[in-house]
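Quick start: load a record and inspect it. Here is Porphobilinogen deaminase, chloroplastic:
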Amino acid sequence: METTFPSRPLLESTALRSGSIWALGFPPPCLKIPYFNPCRKFVVTQAAVAVEEQTKTKVSLLKIGTRGSPLALAQAYETREKLVAAHSELAEEGAIEIVIIKTTGDKILDQPLADIGGKGLFTKEIDEALLNGDVDIAVHSMKDVPTYLPEGTILPCNLPREDVRDAFISLSAASLAELPAGSVVGSASLRRQSQILYRYPSLKVENFRGNVQTRLRKLSEGEVQATLLALAGLKRLDMTDKVTSILSIEEMLPAIAQGAIGIACRTKDETMANYITSLNHEETRLAVSCERAFLETLDGSCRTPIAGYAYRDKDGYCVFRGLVASPDGTRVLETSRRGAYVYEDMIQMGKDAGEELKKRAGPEFFDFLRSHK
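Running the structure step on this input writes:
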């Protein structure tokens, strides 16, 4: 007996209304219809729905907020790798999402940092995203983090610190000492500027903004004869081949918290706090806390050339060195401390060192810096 199929319009309209050819009661022979293949349409439609449903179920468990520079992303990826290694549920594909946030410091590149506000230039928008719930944790370079944290956030984690030293990069000289008089060194850091001019007053320092790649390009184009970059960043970017020489701590005291990564979350978010606290490197956290206590005591900003470094010596004690200077390098004041590698003691060391330099500098020194804002 020959099967009689309905007309093409009836078949199409019925299939469209039901969303499935099986609603018509036809078996697979419908594939033989030369002018219309509803079974194929059904399979394709169902596959698309399946993919969409699968995508919907892959909701990230944790969103990392970060700047979009190559270095910032390298730090965010490092954080993600450590979270995945420490927590199996975060190892699932799509469990961790990295969210790029553009900050004020990234948007304004034609002015010195000191002229556009100083504190929070590279963290403000990321902190806002954290507080708004757009991200769950925030990854920062600790040297960019103000000494105060926004209300509603905590920073319980520092990853193991990288090399704190600065790298000298030049196409024409092996070191700062070998640069001819009048050579221009590019740097956006008043800390570096003051120490360069203190030791090499015949050199010039010009504002030099941009990420690592941008600065190296400007150097290769001859805008400056040399520049200084944090060795930690070059290591994280696997770009140490660009280094001409490494400056010793004695020649160039590093920025507060240089080489350290900090991870913040919301105050009452216990889940995220537990995740990131599990990554904390306590020796780094204590050293950074000591340095930041020093900075806070001096009320430092991008207009105040301040440097500081705390570390554990071979005997297990904390050694701290601090410095404050005038931007032109004509006045540089230094101090040091040594004590137990314990949080309370190290905080006190930082504060004491800051108070000492405040007294030695005198109020007129800081009044001068403030008057030039």
